[in-house]
Structures are given as C-alpha cells and as structure tokens.
Amino acid sequence: MTNDFRGNMIESIEKYLQEVVAFEASDARALEEFRIKYLGKNGIVNALFTDFKKVPGPEKREVGQALNKLKVAVNEKIDAGKEAFASEQKSVFMDLTKPGDPLPMGSRHPINLVRKRIIEIFKRIGFSLSDGPEIEDDWHNFTALNLPEFHPARDMQDTFFIQQNPDILLRTHTSSVQIRYMTENQPPIRILSPGRVYRNEAISSRSHCMFHQIEGLYIDEKVSFADLKQTLQFFTTELFGKSQIRLRPSYFPFTEPSAEVDVYWGLETETDYRITKGTGWLEIMGCGMVDPAVLENVNIDAEKYSGFAFGMGIERIALLLYQIGDIRLYFENDMRFLEQFEPGLV
Ligand code: PHE
Q1: 345 pLDDT above the threshold of 80
Q2: What is the model's pLDDT at position 151?
Q3: Mean pLDDT of 34-38
Q4: Cα 267 versus chain centre, distance
C-alpha cells in the first residue's frame, strides 16, 4: 500500500463528509434513503471500512479517525431528521379505536310516513293490506264499480290511456283493487289498499297527475252506516287527535248513500283559520255504503251482505299533518324539504 492510497481515502472520506454535512432531508422517505446510502449493508460506510482494512498499519490512525468522524456525522444527521419527522409520522398513523365517520342517514318520505301511520291505525281494527296493478283494464277501474261507459261520472276521473278497445289505462283510484279482491274472496272482507293513482289533471299546488290513495273496504253481514261512522271517528281520533266529524251527502257511483267526511279541526290559531278557511272544518275523504250493484258485479250476494268503503288521498292528509303548502314539494326531491322528516329505519 502506498501513501497515495491513504491520501485518496482521506480525500474521498472528506468529500462524503461534506455531502453529509450539507444533506437536508425533505421528508422521512428521503432520510431513510440517506440512511441506506451510508449505513446500509452495501452502503458507503461499510465499503470504506472494507478499504480501511487495506490501509497499512502506521496510517490506520489518521484514516480511522476520518472514517469515524464521517460515521458520527451520518448518525447525527439521521437522529436529527428522525426527531424532525416524528410529528409528521404520528399524523399519518391511523387510530383504529376511533369511531368511524358518520354516514349521512336518509329520511323517510312524508308520503311513506303518513301511509304507514294510516295503515297502523286500521290494522288495529282488523284491516289487512291488499295490492293491485297500477295499469288496469276498464272493467276493474270503472265498469265493475258501477261506472259504465259514457257515464258522466267518468269525467271526474279522466286518466291516461295506454290502449283502446279494449281499454287499458292507469288506474284512477285503488277501488280497482277492491274489485279484484272481492272477485277472489267471499265476505267477511276487511281490506286496506294503499297505492299510486293517476288522473289527467294539470299540475298545481293542489293537484297532480299522480298521487297516492288509501282506500278501505268492509263487507260482512249487517254492516251499517253506523259502523262506517264509528270506524271513521276512531280513525280521525287516532290520526289527528280529533274525534268530531261530519258527513256531508255526496255522490260516488259505487256507493249509496255517499258522503264526504269532514273533521272538526278547530278555530284556535291563525293557522286553523287559514287551513279551514274560517270554518273550522276540513274535508279529508270520501265514503259510503257499497252499492249493491257493485256487489252483484263481483258475485257477492247483496241480499245477505252489505258493507262500506272509504278513500283518501295521502298527499292531502300529509299536507294537513305537516302543514305543507304545496303538493309539488312531494315530488321535486329537494333535499332541503325531504331532510325535515323523521330519519331512516322503519
Ligand atoms: N274512489 C274514490 C275516489 O277516488 C274515493 C272513494 C272510495 C269514495 C270509497 C267513496 C268510497 O274518488
């Protein structure tokens, strides 16, 4: 070994030392790369120590000192860097014991909420649910319900026709479900038919070409008008907390006699005045005793059986319960409106 070798070694150690002193780690990753470069198994320090073994005895001291100085400098840089990036590393660390981010919870649509409440009330007095198609034929929607072709009462329920001769249409009420049920079942019958219905009407704050109904039907021996009134009274007490009702004579082709049901809302507040137009009364549904002609149409003995039916619009009931001013709000899907109702879960 020559003096030259020793000189070269000291020179390169010095060069590395300058590099180490000048080194500034930008982040923890750069620091780790720096550590591997110098202190790794195949790193610079190890390589220098290998070379160091070849340095002749008398020169070992000087080279050894330089080498140690380099090693100390590298370690100092690493320690300083570790401290600097310790806080950064902490923030990357995930705390698995923390509760998760809450998922936004949807809310029930007001139509669903009110439908559910109405169904629950009638379930308690023995009504069960029945369902039927929204696309109906003329027989189930009109003719069987004592609304023959060209009957003027059909005008009140103009709808959207899908096909003519034979007529296939979007049902105008869920009374069609009652026809289907009575055709298949003999009394006693106690059913509730909720569902979507359609009418050819201009859309405004009070009417829509699509809305939801709940209709009820009760057929048995000796069912009377008094049973109808008592049932309605039970219903209004349960739903609105108001038991005073009045029945105004009305007309429906499928019931005789027929009536509109008003509930006494009261005249205590400004709002009461506004929504009842100063009368205190609110119309909530139509009803009547099932016309014997309808029973004959579905082969139920009208001499033996009688019954009542009623029907209400869910939108209208929800308008009253929640004081909603415009029926269009139900179908616009505006989150600011929808979020105001009871959150998720049945
Ligand atoms: N089907 C009627 C309608 O949609 C409502 C109703 C049902 C009236 C039952 C009386 C009896 O207008």
Answers
A1: no
A2: 87
A3: 94
A4: 36
**Atom 6 of ligand 1: nearest residue by CA position:** 311
Cα of 213 from ligand 1 centre, angstroms: 9
**DSSP string for 126-193:** T-EE----SEEEHHHHTGGGT--TT-GGGGGG---EEETTTTEEE-SSTHHHHHHHHHH-PSSEEEEE
Q: For 117-154, how does the pLDDT look when each residue is reduced to its tens digit (9 = 90+)?
A: 999 999 999 999 999 999 999 999 999 999 988 888 88
Q: Is 252 in the pocket of ligand 1 (CB under 6 A)?
A: yes
Pocket test of ligand 1: the residue of 174, 175, 235 to mutate, having most ligand atoms within 8 Å of its CB, is 175
Q: How far is the CA of 258 from the centre of ligand 1 (A)?
A: 9
Confidence of residue 343 (pLDDT cuts 50, 70, 90): low
Burial of 273 from C-beta contacts in 10 A (0-12 / 13-18 / 19+): middle
Give SS3 for 339: coil
Residue nearest to atom 5 of ligand 1 (CA): 311
Give, for ligand 1, the residue of 136, 141, 142, 252 to mutate: max count of ligand atoms closer than 8 Å to Cβ.
252
Run of H or E residues at 311? strand 305-313
Confidence of residue 346 (pLDDT cuts 50, 70, 90): very low
**For the residues of 245-260, what is the DSSP string, one character each?**
EEEEEEEETTEEEEEE
Q: State the burial class of residue 317 (Cβ atoms within 10 Å of its Cβ: 0-12, 13-18, 19+).
A: buried
Both tokens assigned to 244? 């005073």
CA of residue 311 to ligand 1 center, whole Å: 5
Q: What is the pTM of this model?
A: 0.71
Residue closest via CA to ligand 1's atom 2 equals 311
Edge to edge, the sheet with strand 281-290 lists 128-129, 189-198, 210-221, 305-313, 281-290, 255-264, 245-252
